[in-house]
Amino acid sequence: MSEPVFLKRTIIKQTLWSEHLQEDRKLRIYLPPGYNEVLSYPVIYCQDGEEFFNFGRIATLAGQLIIEDDLEPFIIVGVEVNVAVRTQEYAPFGNRFDKYLACFAEEIIPFIEHNYPVRRTPEERIVAGDSLGGSVSLHLALAYPNLFTRIISLSGAFYPESREIVAREENLSWLNINMVVGLQETEYTTDTGVYDFVDMNRQTKMLLEARGATVSYREKDGRHLWGFWQKELPESLLYFLNA
Fold first, then answer.
1. Which of 27, 73, 119, 236 could serve as 124's disulfide partner, Cβ 3.0–4.6 Å?
2. Domain range spanning residue 235?
3. Domain tally for the chain?
């Protein structure tokens, strides 16, 4: 029996030298079924790129949505991270945070846009992340609103420092964010402490809405795990790609 069409995928691994971080950064690029470089495609950039592909199964999910739901084909770019310095890069109090934001916006985006036929408007460019990956995706949009206006946050780790940054914003009417959090995430231990992710996300939602952002928000039964996020990922993708 032949495998389903959506399992036939092209995933390219590339390495980019970052002047900002002074090191290599690995990327995984998913090209959709029927990929044709003379066409142009919406693009999703994922923090924790390796995990989005391995545990989030985003390539398989994308193939299913494109083949079975007749969704317009899109490209996925997974930006890999060294777990040992993940908090330093993704958290606003991290010592590599500013350099990582600059690497993402000023090096990774131009590299992808030079090498792949991705669309170049903020409306066709989505940034997705889980936990701290969700919060750094929001920070990317706040730092580079000319590039990023559409965010997917899976159980975003919106620590007090992140909420303070959002609170300083006056007008976020340009921002559209899809947020999901698991109801069993009320006492989750991270490398910086124990947090109530439900309360954290509720507070962030209120801060964003008060500043005019468009927020699609849902709470579901689930824990702070890829088993939960994988199930929620299709709904978040469809929110932006089904328009």
1. 119
2. 5-241
3. 1
